[in-house]
Amino acid sequence: MKSNGKSNTIFVSSRGVLEYFLEKDLQDFLIEINQLGNAFFVAIEPNSSDHDFNTHKQTMLYGNEPSFSHNYPLLFKNAGFKIWHFSQQPWFNGGNMQTFLGAKS
User: Fold this and answer.
1) Are 74 and 52 a contacting pair, CB within 8 Å?
2) Which of 4, 9, 11, 48 is the most buried (most CB within 10 A)?
3) Quick one: average pLDDT of 55-76?
4) For the domain 10-51+60-104, what is the CATH code?
5) Alpha carbon 71 to chain centroid distance?
6) Are 48 and 98 in contact (CB under 8 A)?
7) Is the dihedral of CA 50, 56, 57, 58 positive or negative?
8) C-alpha to C-alpha distance for 40 and 95, rounded to whole angstroms
9) For residue 38, what is the enclosing H or E element?
10) Contact yes or no for 83/76 (Cβ under 8 A)
């Protein structure tokens, strides 16, 4: 990222890319992207349906693999992004949620 990253870039993750990052690594990654300047990020990522972002701010393990249910709004805000869209919808695979987040540096 540091040697190849450029400003004016749109980043997209979909259906389970960011869920495999450790929380600290994901936070560091988002900070680096934000520092590029004029970056947009669209994340479509799964979360545990039991993960209430208001009461449980930290990342939690979930699923059969296992993977991480991240508090995406908090991580993006902590990295300095402005969130322009956030929503969640039930996902068909047994009680998980699909999180939709749009953010701008």
Assistant:
1) no
2) 48
3) 93
4) 3.40.50.150
5) 7
6) no
7) negative
8) 29
9) none
10) yes
pLDDT in tens, 33-63: 999 999 999 999 999 999 999 999 999 998 8
**Which amino acid, one-letter code, is at 43?**
A
Q: What are the E-state strand segments in the chain? A: 10-14, 40-47, 60-62, 67-69, 82-90, 97-104
Tokens of 25: 């690594």
Q: Cβ-count burial of 45 within 10 angstroms (0-12 exposed, 13-18 middle, 19+ buried)?
A: buried
Amino acid residing at 4? N
Lookup result for tokens 């929380």: 23
pTM above 0.70, yes or no: yes
Cα–Cα distance measured from residue 79 to residue 90, given in angstroms and rounded to the nearest whole number: 27
List of residues 6+ apart from 27 with CB closer than 8 A: 75, 78, 79
